[in-house]
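Re: your question about ROK family protein

S., sorry for the slow reply, the queue was backed up all week. Below is exactly what I fed in.
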Amino acid sequence: MDYVIAVDIGGTQLRAALVTLTGELVLSERTATLVHEGAEAVLGRVLKLIELVRAVVLPNDRLLGLGIGAPGPLDPVTGMIYSPPNMPGWDAFPLRDRVAAATGLPVTLGNDANVAALGEWRFGRGQGLRHLVYLTVSTGIGGGIIVDGHLLLGRLGAAGEPGFLIVDQATGAIWEDLASGTALGREAAMQMPHYPDSALHKLATPATVTAAEVSLAAQQGDRLARQLMQREAHLLGMGFASMLHLFSPEILLVGGSVILHNPALLEAAREVAYANVRVPLYREVPILAASLGDHVGLLGAAALALQRID
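Result:
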């Protein structure tokens, strides 16, 4: 059997898996990131996870390479990570080369959102397509773009940052400032004092409320929460329409906790997008939930390793 190793580095969790060429996760392991302990300590935990999943490879099997998805900014060409906001102390850290030296494997490094796009393209709902937009809506808004069968990288691999699209001329607010899960929780906190009877007060305080509580209260029929979710659908849908115009994909896939836990939100945002495109043909583009769920980071890292082999 032929395999690759996939590594998904997050601000709170590290994961590694042994993956077949068809995207089957043979074995996966995880541990806490503990970013406060510094880059060297985190690297040590990454290498330990790699050892654990590598241990099940049999003598007659082939291990073809290793892919890593990590928070940006990073340079996929040099393999360097440059000060990710959620991983302090990683300034100009040569992650790819350090892992390659420790494992003896060819290693490929990619931005986590780009890697997720590759995963959906190779193993998920984007299979067989040449043009795809992948978006993730959670703490922020990220994404990856496949154009003409290639991942759009740009200078320093920094292309494809839809969350930074400026959407408010007066304030300079970017899309994720208004429509991310963090933004949804922030808007709820601002509105809760004006709605003392809202069910949100039974679930959280203005200081602690998150998108998850807003979603739950909306499902229970709470008026404020439903208004907040309608606002969220509008803001997401307008951004989706912009993505359709910018990249003309064959499919637009949306992942992240805010979307995956709220199917009705995606339906409403899709309607907003189709109502606001200026080219009617874009209404033919499916806007669907991403299909790989919690495995998208690992399968994306596997796809990254396989892309180098291809």
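The first helix runs from residue 39 to 54. The chain is about 40% helix and 20% strand.

Happy to talk it through on Thursday.
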